[in-house]
Amino acid sequence: MDVGKALARYLRTEGVKVTEVSSPDKATRRRRGKTDAVDAEAAARAVLGGPATIAKAGDGPVEKARMFKLAKASAIKSRTQDINQLKSILVSTDPELRESLAGLGYKNRGAASRSRRPRPPPRPPPPSTRCDCSPGASRT
Q1: Domain of 85, in residue numbers
Q2: Are 22 and 51 in contact (CB under 8 A)?
């Protein structure tokens, strides 16, 4: 999360009026310089006399839509990485396996490759749950 957004949200909950100022245009910044002092002065002038707006709350439907969009973009990126990894594995795999997966789409290839995965042998239960149920076993 952007520190500025977090600070603005905190100040708003404390009852402080938060004003949003756009950065000055590039020509003005080149002409007047690019220092923190110049930027602070430009921000103060914008708040006092001009192009400043009340900061967005950041917790309404627009923020929820933004979060949804971020999650969707992340899922798409992850899916693309998975597909690319599967493609690279298929290039170097056994030709017979590659041919058997050739006609499948990406979803079906993933399912088919998972079904061919060797399963580990079942693990024995932990010692505390083992029970000797033979007829001559003693109870403790």
Answers
A1: 61-115
A2: yes
CA distance 84 to 118: 22
- Reported as half-sphere exposure (CB side, CA atoms, 13 A), residue 86 has a value of 21
- pTM reported for the whole predicted model: 0.40
For residue range 92-114, what is the model confidence (pLDDT) as tens digits?
888 887 787 777 666 666 566 66
Please state at what angle helix 106-115 crosses helix 61-91, rounded to 10 degrees: 60
Q: Is 48 exposed, middle or buried, given 0-12, 13-18 or 19+ CB atoms closer than 10 A?
A: exposed
- Are 71 and 102 part of one and the same domain? yes
- Total tally of structural domains belonging to the chain: 2
Among residues 49, 56, 42, 64, the alpha carbon closest in space to that of 8 is found at 56
Joined together, the tokens standing for residue 111 give 């399912």
